[in-house]
Amino acid sequence: MAEDNNKILPDPGTVSLGISNPKNAENMGSVLRAAKCYGVSAVWFTGQRFHYARRFNTDTQQAARQIPTVGCDDLLAMRPRGASIVAVELVEGATPLPAFEHPDNAYYLFGPEDGSLDQTTLDGCDAVVYIPTNGCMNLAATVNVLLYDRLAKRPCSVDNVGWVQATRDTNNRTRKKPTDA
Predict the structure, then answer these.
(1) Sorted alphabetically, which keywords does the UniProt record give (predicted)?
(2) What tens digit of pLDDT does each residue of 48-85 get?
């Protein structure tokens, strides 16, 4: 796989993630993998549960070695300079993700797998969005859907062949069958 996919992907803007008290190392491993895939610059997290479970994490791309992944006491205090804080939470009054316009410089906050962001954190956000599903998704799925939605809504001029060649797994050398012209 390419070492720096951001050189060929659409400009992701500046994206950081804040995770409130993650408990599941497998989910956090998948969050970190998504962070690497979508060009996230930093991941902040609160609580101690991830520290205890970290050795079991599924970060197969070793994203935590490339993306700062730092514990903190207050996600709001970690707001990157100039970033809009966007909570991703299934709450009344939130904007459905399909109708949301992502800010260029965004700091997305996610609640724990077994709870929600607290009211003080929600009140400190510039926007709150939700993914309109039947029930809530797990943390890793939510992060992936949000980051994909952000990518899909950004202007894009990618050399498809070059992008595929640079980012695919080393075991994948297949091609689409050419169509007759």
Answers:
(1) Methyltransferase, S-adenosyl-L-methionine, Transferase
(2) 655 544 544 555 555 566 678 888 999 999 999 999 99
**CA torsion sign, 144 to 29 to 116 to 134?**
positive
The dihedral built from the CA positions of residue 164, 166, 172 and 175, taken in this order, carries a sign that is: positive
Show the domains of the chain with their CATH numbers: 11-167 (3.40.1280.10)
CA proximity to 124, closest of 156, 92, 80, 77:
77
17 and 44 Cβ atoms separated by less than 8 Å: yes
Reference 42, options 11, 17, 71, 12; nearest CA is 17
Task: Please state the pTM of the whole predicted model.
Answer: 0.80
Q: Which among 38, 48, 66, 68 has a CA at the least distance from the CA of 140?
A: 38
Closest CA to 43 of 62, 61, 68: 68
Nearest CA to 44 out of 65, 12, 22 is that of 22
- Give tens-digit pLDDT for 93-148: 999 999 999 999 999 999 998 889 999 999 999 999 999 999 889 999 999 999 99
Closest CA to 105 of 75, 78, 83: 83
